[in-house]
Each structure stands twice: as C-alpha cells, then as structure tokens.
C-alpha cells in the first residue's frame, strides 16, 4: 500500500458521501448575481503577482463522460469569433491588473485549448505578453491541456517554443472497449508519442489524467492501464472518480447505466491505483493527485507552500488568479467572480464594453478564516491551531467549538488526531479529507444563494 495512505475499503464505503471538492471556499453555488463587474473591478490590486487562466471551450468530438463547459464544433469560424472577444476581455482585465504585475502562472484549459491553430495560439500569447509582464521560463509555470488525438510532435514542439513549459494530457483509460464506451478512441501509441515529443521539446513537467468508474472498467482493465502509465513515467498523475450525473450533463446520458462498475469495483480500482502508484514511487498529494518525489508539487507539500485553486493543486502561494473566457472563474483579493456561461451572453456583455462577470462573491471574515482552515487540511493534511489563533487573532477553541466536537467522531474512526494545538489527518483519513473539511464548511447543507444554482456534488471517495 502507498506509504502515506491507509486504504480501508469498509471505512470508505461507510463514510463516503456527496460533498465539495473545495477548489474554492465558499463553493460556487454560493456565488450571487449581486456581485458583478463593478465589485470585481473594485477588488483589483495592480502590481501584485498573478496567475492567469484562459478558457478555450471548443472540442472536435464529444467524450461522453465530460462535465466541462465545452462546445463541440468543426466550424473553425467560431474560434475566430471567440478569439476576437477574448482579446477584448484580456484588454479590460489588463487595465485593472497589469500595471507592475508579474504573471507567475499561466494555464490554458477547456474544452481543448489546442483546438486553436498554431497561428491563433501565437497571436493569443503575443497579445497576453503585450499586456502583461511574464516571469522567466525558469521561474514561471505555463501549462496547457492537450488532446493527443489532435496534436502531433511538431505541434508539441511549437507549444514549447511559444512558451509553455508544462503539459497535461488526458488518457482516462487505455482499454479499447472502455474508450469506445465513452467515445474517446485514443490508441496507446498516440499518448506515448505525445509524451516522448514533450520530453524532447524540453517540457519541465508532464501530467496524465485517468478516470476510474467509467463504463466497462474493472480491476483487470485498470491494472493494464496502470502498467502502461507507470511505464510512460509522467511527472504527475491525476486519478479522478467518475461522477455519473446524466441529469446535469446531457452527454452522460449516452453512457449505459448497466455498463458502469458497482461501488465495490470502483473502490477496488481506487485501491489498486494507490497500491501501484505508491510502488512506482509516486507521492500522494491529495484529492486524486500523485507526483514524483522530486516534482514541484511534492516539494511544495513538504515545504508547506502547496495551494489549492480552481485548477486543482498549485505550487505557488495564494496569488490572485485572473480568469478570461466564457464561464471562467477569477479569485482576486478575497473575492470570486465567474464569467457568463453562454457565448451569447459573454459576447453581449463585451459588446457593451463591460467585463462579462455574471456572478461572484465577496468573502466575509468568517469565510476567509474557514477557507484557510480548509486549505491547510486539503494541502498539508494538518492544521496548527496555535498558528491560526495568532495569525487571525481568534480564539480557535471558542470559535470552532461545534466543529471540534464533531471532529471527535471522525477521530474515533481513526481519520485524524486532535490536540489543543493541532489537527493531523492520519494516513487512513487522507482519502476522506473532504469529509473532514466539510465539518468546517458553514454553508454545506444550507440553501444556495440562488435556488437555481443548487450544486450536486460528487462522492468524496
């Protein structure tokens, strides 16, 4: 078993429940239209280090499992139009943030960012660099998600020349039957070629995404996939739990319920992933993420500088994140702001000369305190209560008396150890850290800020 995780299938089966992934606190269902473009602009802090996120929503084909905000189209004209509006939004954002700011992180997500042509990508990056100052290649993290089915070695070399130094690619599963069941046919050779090309091009980090719980998967197919992933030796591996919610995501209706593995099989696959990746030397970072011990994620966790944001785990401290594109979410100076989710509304707002912010939230003092608690538990698996009391000037024992009492039940199950000075998540509790964090979530189980925003969460394990 993995050296930092104790996998207890019976405990997990008993305790797993639906809950937030805590890429933010408060979670997105708490965002409200009362927070708009004006409130977001007022939160801007020019001159501060920045993380930029750029959302490219287009894909060439539909993966049935996908829950991302994407647009399936072969009409390249749609990308041309979108880029025109995206550049205008970037200009509006830069007017608020760029003065003296250094971009330490850049992430292109989607959809499929490499839906853009080399020339379009070059123009977009050139525009960003004309508006912002970027950290050096050695100091900055500039990442992009690619689809190996549509990107060849020449394109990967171009992406590196354009300034990206981290690469993430989806695999999900190497089994051909599973691939057919989710409409993502991706021969192993394509993935291996993409990884080899990225290494030759000098990418600093290569990450692979897997999913367990897909149709026709079982322990045997997962074992074969893991063998191939370990042989490819990526720097980071994400192993996501497939959340089947066809009532929310229409494409998932194309997956047959009878083809899905049952709960016991899913747990067995997770246990196998933990065992195999641990044996291969990967460190469990948390929340589906594994990394090599010398990877920056693992080092950041050891140093206590690991952070969690809308893209998952991050090596940089809690810097402002400015997000551009349809549906993108910014996190700036104690606020969250999400752009319009439809292209039509996104375009309309920009045509009016407005930032396309549809909703958001200004965090209260209590929100900020609880966010810090949840961040520490999610990233460090520990919380120093004395440090928290001193830094926030708060009587922790009094402020969190109900929460500390609820933690006693989890402690009896062996998930954590609590003393007057510390909370430490045990190896048995690390897989259930979302359950622990939910204790400190003052919103969980309460009505959403806007009833139609009711969020349906995935299971914690």
In short:
Monomer. By secondary structure, the chain is of the alpha/beta class. The protein has helices at 9-15, 37-43, 76-97, 118-131, 153-161, 176-181, 188-201, 219-232, 263-279, 296-303, 343-351, 365-380, 385-392, 396-399, 401-412, 433-438; strands at 50-56, 58-59, 71-72, 102-110, 133-134, 141-146, 166-172, 205-212, 236-241, 283-286, 289-291, 307-309, 312-314, 320-324, 329-332, 335-339, 357-362, 382-384, 416-418, 422-425.
CATH class descriptor name of the largest domain: Alpha Beta
Q: What is the number of independent domains?
A: 2
- Shape type: globular
The counted number of beta strands is 20
In the CATH hierarchy, the architecture of the largest domain is Alpha-Beta Horseshoe
Largest sheet: 10 strands, mixed
- CATH superfamily heading of the largest domain: tm_1862 like domain
Low-confidence stretches: none
| Rg, Cα atoms, Å | 22 Å
What is CATH's topology name of the largest domain? pyruvate-formate lyase- activating enzyme
Number of helices: 16
N- to C-terminal separation?
A: 17 Å
Proportion of strand residues: 15-25%
Structural class: alpha/beta
Helix content: 25-40%
Overall residue-averaged pLDDT value = 93
């Amino acid at each position: 078993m993995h050296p930092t995780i104790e996998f207890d299938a019976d405990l997990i089966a008993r305790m797993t429940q639906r809950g937030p992934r805590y890429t933010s606190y408060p979670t997105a269902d708490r965002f409200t239209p009362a927070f708009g473009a004006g409130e977001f602009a007022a939160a801007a802090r020019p001159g501060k280090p920045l993380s930029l996120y750029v959302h490219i929503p287009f894909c060439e084909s539909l993966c049935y499992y996908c829950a991302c905000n994407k647009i399936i189209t072969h009409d390249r004209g749609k990308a041309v139009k979108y880029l025109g509006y995206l550049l205008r939004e970037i200009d509006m954002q830069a007017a608020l943030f760029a003065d003296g700011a250094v971009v330490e992180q850049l992430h292109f997500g989607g959809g499929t960012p490499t839906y853009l042509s080399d020339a379009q990508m070059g123009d977009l990056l050139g525009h960003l660099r004309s508006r912002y100052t970027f950290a050096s290649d050695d100091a900055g993290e500039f990442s992009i998600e690619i689809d190996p089915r549509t990107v060849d070695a020449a394109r990967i070399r171009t992406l590196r020349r354009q300034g990206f130094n981290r690469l993430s690619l989806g695999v999900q599963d190497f089994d051909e039957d599973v691939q057919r069941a989710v409409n993502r046919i991706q021969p192993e050779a394509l993935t291996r070629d993409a990884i080899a090309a990225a290494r030759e091009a000098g990418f600093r980090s290569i990450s692979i995404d897997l999913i367990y719980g897909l149709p026709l998967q079982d322990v045997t197919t997962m074992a074969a996939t893991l063998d191939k992933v370990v042989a490819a030796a990526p720097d980071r591996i994400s192993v996501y739990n497939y959340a089947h919610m066809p009532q929310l995501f229409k494409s998932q209706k194309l997956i047959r319920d009878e083809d899905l593995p049952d709960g016991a099989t899913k747990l067995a696959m997770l246990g196998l992933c933990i065992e195999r990746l641990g044996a291969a030397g990967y460190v469990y970072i948390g929340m589906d993420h594994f990394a090599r011990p010398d990877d920056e994620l693992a080092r950041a966790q050891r140093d206590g500088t690991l952070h969690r944001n809308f893209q998952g785990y991050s090596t940089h401290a809690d810097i402002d994140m400015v997000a551009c594109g349809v549906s993108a979410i910014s996190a700036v100076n104690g606020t969250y702001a999400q752009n319009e989710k439809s292209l039509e509304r996104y375009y309309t707002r920009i045509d009016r000369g407005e930032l396309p912010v549809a909703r958001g939230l200004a965090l209260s003092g209590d929100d900020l305190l609880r966010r810090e608690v949840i961040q520490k538990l999610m990233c460090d698996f520990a919380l120093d209560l004395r440090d928290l009391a001193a830094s926030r000037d708060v009587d922790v024992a009094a402020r969190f008396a109900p929460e500390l009492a609820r933690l006693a039940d989890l402690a009896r199950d062996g998930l954590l150890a609590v003393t007057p000075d510390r909370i430490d998540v045990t190896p048995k509790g690390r897989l259930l850290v979302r359950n622990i964090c939910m204790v400190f979530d003052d919103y969980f189980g309460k009505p959403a800020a806007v009833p139609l925003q009711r969020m349906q969460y995935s299971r914690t394990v």
